[in-house]
Design brief:
Shape: globular
Number of strands: 18
Strand content: 25-35%
Distance between the termini: 13 Å
């Protein structure tokens, strides 16, 4: 049996909102001040079809140095829904291709960080599955679709090489566009990687709306938070003060995580780590012991029955049950 997980409705903000339409650049330069036509749709209910008899939970396990652990047997895992233990009826670990949306911050605040962002992109591609496909979205005053999934990695890197950081930061709008593009992606496994300082000062959507969107999507989201290691009172804006927390919030709700890079030289290393970690997931499946059709949020918890070496477990925290 299948049902629909419904998306929350966004603010209309006095505009007529249709489906996304983006006029891409045909040269190799990205500029926040080039005319780019972008119309973002509202977060209207758009059902995601799921098998409600079998709940699938992607799980990542990492050690104390954030390296993925990929050789644990099923008996190491325990899974609970609403605090009630569930019988794991499906278990897999595989390196299957993924459709990935890369959300890259090219706003003015990234001016002195762009070199490391490009190194991060290179390392991410080098450690990915060769069969993966990509959408690349540049963040500035508005989201700009830089590359579709049909483009090669070399073509994507060439387009990004001449990017010029400018403008403000419409990060939440860019995340929304990434989720929207992944709805029709080639592969069932879908992920998003954000490289940003975490601030947002130019989006029509807000943090609460984007968290709801990611919670009800099947898009595993990671971020590399690029921050300056200076005392909080020296930050100039609220976006700079709260960027780390905002990235923590939007990634955790999806089952992913934010990995901060206070030392910019670590950014390429973190990108390679995320790329490998995305390829090293376990998938646990269970049929709920109490399958009520009440449309409510069901909280999931995954633990390791045995935990050698202080391992850390990351997983999506729940799902919305089908309605009556």
């Amino acid at each position: 049996m299948t049902t629909a997980l419904m998306m929350p409705v966004a603010r209309a903000q006095g505009q007529s909102i249709d489906t996304p339409h983006i006029v891409p650049r045909h040269d190799t330069q990205i500029s926040a001040y080039m005319p780019v036509e972008v119309t973002l749709p509202a977060l209207r209910p758009r059902p995601m079809r799921v098998d409600v008899n079998l709940v699938l939970v992607p799980v990542t396990v990492v050690d104390s140095t954030s390296r993925p652990v990929i050789d644990l047997p099923q008996q190491y895992f325990s899974l609970l829904e609403g605090g009630v233990p569930q019988k794991i009826q499906f278990f897999s670990r595989e390196d299957a291709p993924i459709s990935v949306a890369l959300i890259l911050d090219f706003s003015g605040s990234m001016g002195d960080k762009i070199e490391y962002e490009m190194q991060a992109v290179e390392q991410f591609f080098q450690n990915a599955n060769p069969a993966d496909d990509y959408y690349v979205i540049a963040v500035s005053d508005r989201p700009t679709l830089v590359a579709e999934s049909s483009q090669s990695i070399d073509a994507i890197e060439n387009q990004l090489a001449s990017a010029e950081p400018r403008g403000m930061t419409a990060l939440y709008d860019s995340i929304y566009l990434g989720v929207n593009k992944l709805r029709t992606a080639r592969y069932k496994r879908r992920a998003m990687v954000i490289v940003s300082d975490g601030g947002d000062n130019h989006s029509r959507y807000n943090l609460k709306e984007i968290k709801s969107l990611l919670a009800e999507s099947d898009v595993l989201t990671y971020s590399i938070g690029i921050f300056d290691d200076i005392p909080v009172p020296l930050f100039k804006t609220i976006e700079e003060r709260l960027g780390r927390k905002w990235l923590d919030d939007v990634t955790r709700v999806s089952g992913g995580r934010n990995i901060p890079a206070d030392d910019r030289k670590q950014i390429p290393v973190i990108a390679a780590l995320i790329s490998r970690e995305m390829r090293s997931q376990y998938v646990l499946g269970y049929r709920p012991a109490d399958p009520k059709y009440d449309g409510k949020w069901r909280k999931i918890s995954v633990k390791l029955a045995e935990n050698p070496g202080q391992l850390h477990v990351h997983f999506k925290e729940g799902y919305v049950a089908p309605g009556p």
